[in-house]
Write a structure and sequence with these properties.
Blueprint (H helix, E strand, L loop, with lengths): L13 E6 L36 E3 L4 E7 L3 E10 L7 E7 L7 E4 H4 L10 E2 L3 E4 L3 E4 L3 E3 L3 E7 L5 E12 L7 E9 L8 E8 L2 E11 L11 E4 L12 E2 L3 H4 L7 E2 L3 E2 L2 E2 L3 E7 L10 E7 L5 E3 L2 E7 L2 E4 L3 E4 L3 E10 L12 H4 L22
Parallel strand pairs: 6-13
Antiparallel strand pairs: 1-12, 2-12, 3-11, 4-9, 4-10, 4-12, 5-6, 5-11, 7-8, 8-9, 13-27, 14-24, 15-22, 15-23, 15-27, 16-17, 16-24, 18-19, 20-21, 21-22, 25-26
């Protein structure tokens, strides 16, 4: 699971496998055998082995199993792509070691740092997003008995999805923690109330990453708020955490409003932190600004022994006389962590209405950004 390049020369008792629509179970010699699939018509003159099954159609309202593995191993890479209209209508889930409860339950786009249905280049260690919507995850996802990854389509339109899940089988994962990711949205945020990223997590582990899709609902600066990690025996009611940040832009690695003088908000993407997305008002339907930010605690994981009672972040701007102004923004967060158990306390599952991006103008023409839900006559 190391990202140390020296491990590439080390011989190990493991084998690489890959699951895709060209090899649904990852079996040895099982790739390229399809005689029917989404590419069959294009390959009708070439036949078997010529991109006959490169993708799947996830039917409206249904859940598709991307990968099912029945032995110990670790997922090392996920590549996936689908139309941008589907980025906030699909829900990605992962289950470890036969658990009935998902450890990962996140809107597809948010998992890959794309909560707004609009593409932005992401050049980071753990997530890479490349033109136009080639999404990659390098989060190590170990399991001791088996794994299952699914995609739920919450819309009323079928979604065509191309994907590849690469993993290793074998090896000893008895001391590895399980990968988790949870999504929460506040829209709008309650008055003078922090947005909750995690709550009620029990067990030993480490918090390793945050992605936030932040929609501003007012004029002025919005990122003065602090992130707080209540760890182990900390009492969230007291308001006194073990780790308290100094500001939103500070936590995501920027400073002074992400503002290069004369240029305004400036997008950036680096191995462990960034604000790759700045969506400015278009003077019509996109009336307010939208931002996408990530912070990977890979070089500096936040380790806890008993649990994380709460992780939250404030939304603060400024009002007159140099006073803070609590804001009521649209904040959608994805929290990434490893835990000593395959299931944890989590919020209600994301559904279509909870995930919807409110860019629409009503029954008339749609804004060029954001998915549309078609209504049946």
């Amino acid at each position: 699971m190391s990202h140390d390049p020296t491990h590439l020369a080390r011989l190990r008792p493991t084998l690489t496998r890959s699951i895709s629509p060209e090899n649904f179970d990852g079996s040895p010699g099982g790739g390229g055998r399809a005689t029917e699939g989404t590419g069959a018509e294009a390959g009708r003159d070439l036949g078997q082995g010529w991109k006959i099954s490169p993708s799947v159609d996830v039917k409206a309202g249904e859940t598709f199993t991307l990968a099912e593995i029945d032995t110990a191993g670790v997922i090392t890479h996920i590549w996936v792509t689908t139309h941008p209209d589907n980025w906030r209508t699909l829900v990605l889930r992962a289950y470890w070691d036969g658990s009935e409860e998902p450890a990962v339950e996140v809107p597809y786009g948010d998992f890959f740092c794309h909560g707004w249905g609009v593409f932005a280049q992401v050049d980071s260690q753990m997530v890479a997003a490349n033109p136009h919507g080639g999404f990659n995850s390098y989060w190590p996802m170990p399991f001791r008995e088996g794994a299952r990854l699914t995609l739920e389509n919450t819309s009323d339109t079928d979604a065509r999805v191309y994907y590849q899940v690469t993993y290793e089988i074998g090896g000893d994962h008895s001391e590895d923690a399980y990968f988790h990711a949870q999504w929460r949205r506040s829209n709008p945020l309650d008055e003078a109330t922090p947005h909750v990223l995690l709550e009620g997590i029990e067990g030993q582990g480490q918090y390793v990453g945050t992605y936030i899709a932040w929609g501003v609902h007012s004029n002025g600066w919005w990122g003065e708020g602090e992130i707080k990690f209540y760890m182990d025996d900390d009492d969230p009611v007291s308001g006194f955490p073990t780790i308290a940040g100094t500001g939103t832009e500070d936590y995501f690695g920027g400073a002074w409003n992400f503002d290069i003088p004369g240029e305004g908000y400036t997008a950036f993407t680096t191995p462990y932190l960034g604000m790759p997305q700045v969506i400015r008002s278009d003077g019509l339907y996109v009336a307010q600004q939208r931002f996408g930010m990530y912070r990977w605690h890979v070089a500096d994981p936040i380790r806890f022994a008993k649990g994380l009672p709460k992780v939250d972040i404030q939304a603060l701007g400024w009002k007159s006389a140099g006073r803070y102004l609590p804001l009521r923004d649209d904040i959608a967060s994805t929290a990434f962590f490893y835990l000593d158990r395959p299931a944890a306390a989590r919020p209600a599952a994301p559904d279509y209405d909870a995930m919807e991006i409110q860019y629409h103008a009503g029954p008339g023409p749609l804004s060029p950004i954001g998915p549309a839900r078609t209504e049946q006559a």
